[in-house]
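Sample A.
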Amino acid sequence: GVPTQIALPHLEIRGEVYQPLSIFETFKEKFSNPRNLAAGALKQKVARKTKDYGLRFFAYDVLHRDFETQSEKMVLLQSLGFQPVEWKVLPSNADALQKLWENYLQRRGELDYENDGIVLKGEFVS
């Protein structure tokens, strides 16, 4: 999920390194969880050994650029070759937002990565 070159200068990309649960299966005898394994793998003194752990990267932010919407930011990340975190345009009413949350809860167990929840970004008017 990380390109070897980026076409735009002066960018800072923020995201999260993770290990897919399907890959963790082969390491679970030696490590307590994928999060600790990923953190340890990134601290390897020999960088090419890190590749053996099958880590992935979700991008979720771009610094030093202005965006009118979150969607615009995610599209840029994808166009630069990053794997952006899953995102959706927020619905405009509470019922639709509740359905979005319920859909996430149904799919959560099928994801190939650990997940603490979702982040909502936007302006809400009461």
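Sample B.
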Amino acid sequence: SSETWTTQTQGAFGNYSFRDLRGSISSPLFKDRFSFNLAGGYSGRDGYTKNDLTNKDLDKRAAGFGKGQMFFEVNDRLKIRWIISGERDRDGDYALGDLAYIRVNSNHVSRDFEGYTHRSVGSTTLIADYHGSAIDFSSTTCGVWWKNHSLTDLEYQTATLANGGLYAIR
């Protein structure tokens, strides 16, 4: 459990509109008996690959995430911790395309279909620790919920040229 109020923030920025922002706060609320911790953030960037057919970034990414914890010391023998966390991701499509086209136009593809991957994950955990005079007991109970929805069009094949080189065709 936390003994003092603590906050933290951080951020990073870069090429392709990259941004990563995170923060947390921890607190003791009732002396040494009850405290909490909250943390979360966001990370995203534009895509590295441009779809020349739609003039859009193909493989952009964005994610938000968070976690909360509560600590409760019932007495000197029993401590309980409850944790909840979640994440939500929204990603663009795979940056795959015709190899001959990509060799001439690096970081570019020409596709008539743009897919995505959307993922949501949540979890909760309850931990109870009991320290007795003759026996110690610890229990961890948790659950995870995962939802993933992806849509893409991957009809790529590989063929060998007469001189041994590879190329991808759609």
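B remarks: The chain has one helix and twelve strands. The CA atoms of residues 38 and 68 lie 4 Å apart.
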